[in-house]
Design brief:
InterPro entries: CblAdoTrfase-like, CblAdoTrfase-like_sf, PduO-typ. It comes from Frateuria flava. This protein is mainly alpha-helical. It has 5 helices and 4 strands, in the order E-E-H-H-H-E-H-H-E. The strands form 2 sheets. A two-stranded antiparallel ribbon has the order 1-2. A two-stranded antiparallel sheet has the order 3-4.
């Protein structure tokens, strides 16, 4: 493979437009750019989780695979008509989620984001994932988007929530339960 990015700046975006993977140009604030940009941001926040100390090997493996798939999803969103995320990717997320969730105690209340640095970064990734999903839904109102993109992000946010629970326990921090009865209502 040759050099893909031999020149980092091109000046072609100085007018507020950017090139899509198919060579077309769109405004940098278009729904498509917002969607794949937020997927890129999500990938970066998952990188923050992986940079934390004490991430268990099975979580590290799962999140690294997710990073590769998010790169594929970003490519799919950047190239109109491209199909990279498959139903099998979504099924794999569900299987991984079930495996991490099975040993956890059932939740009876909401938990507060936190539980140590890795879990807190995971909660940040989870919320960015929800935003990416909203961006993809907004894009789908304007242009054709394969349903796998939205479904993948929906399952991924669930997986990230469960991984946050795993990370909070692995780090010895546990979960902080939201105390909705902490003050009188009035």
């Amino acid at each position: 493979m040759g050099n893909r990015l031999s020149k980092i700046y091109t000046r072609t975006g100085d007018d507020g437009s950017t090139g899509l993977g198919d060579g077309s140009r769109v405004p940098k604030d278009s729904a498509r750019v917002a969607a794949y940009g937020t997927v890129d941001e999500l990938n970066s926040t998952i990188g923050m989780v992986l940079a934390c100390e004490g991430v268990p090997p099975d979580v590290r493996e799962a999140l690294t695979q997710v990073q590769h798939e998010l790169f594929d999803l970003g490519g799919e969103l950047c190239i109109p008509g491209m199909a990279m995320v498959q139903d099998a990717d979504i099924a794999r997320l569900e299987s991984v989620l079930d495996g991490f969730n099975e040993p956890l105690p059932p939740l009876k209340e909401f938990i507060l984001p936190g539980g140590g640095m890795a879990a807190a970064c995971g909660h940040l990734a989870r919320t960015v994932c929800r935003r990416a999903e909203r961006e993809v839904i907004a894009l789908a109102r304007e242009e054709a988007v394969r349903p796998q993109a939205q479904r993948y992000l929906n399952r991924l946010s669930d997986l990230l929530f469960v991984i946050c629970r795993v990370l909070a326990r692995a780090g010895g921090h546990g979960e902080v339960i939201w105390q909705h009865e902490r003050r009188p209502r009035g």
